[in-house]
Amino acid sequence: MKSSERKFAEGMLYTDMYQLTMAQLYFHRGLHEKDALFEHFFRRNPDYGSHKAGYSINAGLEWLLDWMAEARFGTEEIEFLRAQTGRTGARTFDDDFLDWLAANGTFDGISLQAIPEGRVVHPNVPLTVVQGPLAMAQILETPLLNHLNFQTLIATKAARIREVGRGNLLLEFGLRRAQDRGASAGARAALIGGADFTSNVGISKVLGYPPKGTHAHSMVQVFMALGEGELEAFRAYADIYPDDCLLLVDTVDTLESGVPNAIKVFEELRKAGHEPVGIRLDSGDLAYISIQAAKQLDAAGFPDTSIVLSNALDELVIWQIITQIQEEAPRYGMDADHIINRLAYGVGTRLITSDPASALDGVYKLVAICEDDAWVPTLKISENREKTLNPAHKKIWRLYDERQKATADLLALAEEDPAAADTLLLHHPSNHTKYRTISRDEISAVEPLLVDIMVNGKVVYDLPSIEEMRAVREHDMERLDHGVKRLMTPHIYHVSLSQKLWNLKQGMIQAVNGDEEQQVPTQI
Amino acid sequence: MKSSERKFAEGMLYTDMYQLTMAQLYFHRGLHEKDALFEHFFRRNPDYGSHKAGYSINAGLEWLLDWMAEARFGTEEIEFLRAQTGRTGARTFDDDFLDWLAANGTFDGISLQAIPEGRVVHPNVPLTVVQGPLAMAQILETPLLNHLNFQTLIATKAARIREVGRGNLLLEFGLRRAQDRGASAGARAALIGGADFTSNVGISKVLGYPPKGTHAHSMVQVFMALGEGELEAFRAYADIYPDDCLLLVDTVDTLESGVPNAIKVFEELRKAGHEPVGIRLDSGDLAYISIQAAKQLDAAGFPDTSIVLSNALDELVIWQIITQIQEEAPRYGMDADHIINRLAYGVGTRLITSDPASALDGVYKLVAICEDDAWVPTLKISENREKTLNPAHKKIWRLYDERQKATADLLALAEEDPAAADTLLLHHPSNHTKYRTISRDEISAVEPLLVDIMVNGKVVYDLPSIEEMRAVREHDMERLDHGVKRLMTPHIYHVSLSQKLWNLKQGMIQAVNGDEEQQVPTQI
User: Fold this and answer.
1) Chain centroid, CA B201 distance in Å
2) Which CATH number fits domain A214-342: 3.30.750.24, 1.10.10.10, 3.20.20.70, 2.40.30.20?
3) A54, A197, A445, B355: which one has the fewest Cβ atoms less than 10 Å from its Cβ?
4) Cβ neighbours of A219 in B, within 8 Å
């Protein structure tokens, strides 16, 4: 796609067609400027099949705000809509609506609250709350989800990989297997979630990090094809990058050729006054080869060089590698921790795609609409009880126990203040037999999670740096119970409804189910 | 990301750092302008776990060419590289190299052959062959793979869904769950591979298709919250879109409320001289509900209205729905085919992410380098024999049997002409015990697959429209054996080496394995 076309494709019409057909309907019914409240949340943490996440890391907000700041209904957008026709050839959008859209189709009326980027977040908790004129809030649904779903998915994967990798150096290598330009957002999310750096040069500049990388197999192949060998290739690399010499040792035979050749070059470097960085392993039994490579490096006097691992890594593979090293290293007279501590991880495909959980199921649901200056809660019932909406204008609170660990997120009506209550009744969101009672003195802190981001189209929030987001993530991770962070079968973190919200929801469900009329909203 | 930043992030530095550190090394060794030959291919068709692809659909080339046409080493790119430093604070890239890059870092020396978009393609067959100066051909690796891997992945998924869905209307709905801007490439690939339309408005314009969509649950919720019901919401929709009335019937209760209300509105429409389009089902047991909804619609005199299905569809789910309708429809006195033929499919998440095979493993490998005016083949041996490279400058042929079905793709040395041979020996690419002998008269056609796309930086190829790519895809699909197209356990399509290529490869492997020197390329 040419960049001129990209500007259009990813501008204001970067949305689903039905948002626009609905907006026109609202316009003709005089509903388009009615104040509406939509909540964005996801229903399940990423489930990777053999393992799954017990938490997620929120990300993507800043880029959504960047998109909102630039998106406009310009002439080209309006004329494209004017050219749309239905089955009979009649125009889909009429002039009245298009005139309104051209003049008023902005986000100037939108206010937005959100949980900040980098925070640990949980299913069914509103991460973003959008308030504004119905038509524009509706059109915003698709681009909002597009920006937030993916980055949250990837930040979560990065956090898991970092946890399993004991916080060792983690590099994002996924550009070549990424989803076209999804690579940029994926790299950003990886940096927020746990990667230290990315190999992606362009996005590194935008995000303010140095790009990382050394060399590929092709460099060694070139030297071999020209009648020189792996050793000459390594020497050439060391010659140009004497203080940053990290050599890929598996082009020919890792333990017979690659590591011995690397050691020769490392010795030459050291004689010339430079310390080598290390080696990279990209194939084979990475745990076994790490042990053997470490053994050779130690024996040669290079016990501090890094061993960078790559090739289809993810949190499960890294966990397996570390476990295998713990088991096997002693057989070779090696200290497992010494090997594990020198590992670094280059993670490509499975981080940038969150394989095999390739999407977060974030949704954007109408929870209330303003009528006669009051919020009328809205409901969508599902046969799957867990998917029935939590209605109404709400506030979100995180409760910490005596150990300063997060014990539950509480969804409450906007006017409630759980910090002021003596006892809190926490309802399971869909199962009426499950609830918890906590007395206020068991709670060390009650923290509101949503912050004001945008008020009437103006950003009122100091956008944090990625470094700040990382600090937020680390702080939240420390306050998360160990069981929730477990690689497999994590504890289920409690997301609960307040008594008042529970009562409202049940009343609304009964009103619909018990009545032939499909409405009866309960005014609050 | 602001669009000014995006221009940089996704310009010439939309590549991996190591491509640039290697380019600098080639520059200092005087190798940077040596003519090199790289091949792009993938190793495995997408494997979705419970089912897998027996073929893939090639896509992405035009957008790669668009990227190449715009990418430049401008001042900002060069200055960013100049600012990069290593561990000791010394600059990573020196002025000589950066001066060369600023003056010569273009794709003007690159020539490119490729298999056209829309064609059926197979593992280990070069889809793209890049010839040009080593440094720039190396830098191109990452952006080439980024553009081609993803679109081929998604086009393949779309083709599978279309096959299972019997060619019925297929709509791409994935923008909200897509990978940020990966949505645009995904929508394009879906249209090439098998989707008729997308709901994504912006990309529809760029690609020349009308965007599709009707309404969401939120529209019905709005009417309910304001004291009106589902019926009023449907009437409002029919009022504005009388000739394109497709109603989402599962906001309250599909069979008790949604379908009866839709029928009321359809009757009103018909009285006013309009024929309704149909209904959409987005939850529940879609096969069962389709049967019951069809029964209600038939009884009311609307046997021709569409039933659009959505909600976590993919080829496996659609196959299950069709099978279930075939089994259950007769129990309700319904004709299964009549129901199946009126189905249309809105596929979101699992198409745009190719869930759960979220990446294609496409690679870009150096296969030859020019020395003294001759191509010297290059090798990379792998412990996994299947991953050992097929070396040398090659041509690719597709062989068709007497039934006009494709029977094998043949990789041969560039100077070979299989069309002229009396007998063809087709070697399994890695297993020496497996080969096939075919006499020329069993072969109805021998087709060269690679076409010239770019010669010395100039596009020499008439870029086909998406309609033309679709025709190519359909033609190739017709010539593919049924077993290869099977949803599960597909036959393995033969990708073979010619005798001469086999001999060359074996000779090179033996030269490396039988010698302490890790080189000995075989001149051809």
Assistant:
1) 21
2) 3.20.20.70
3) A445
4) 22, 25
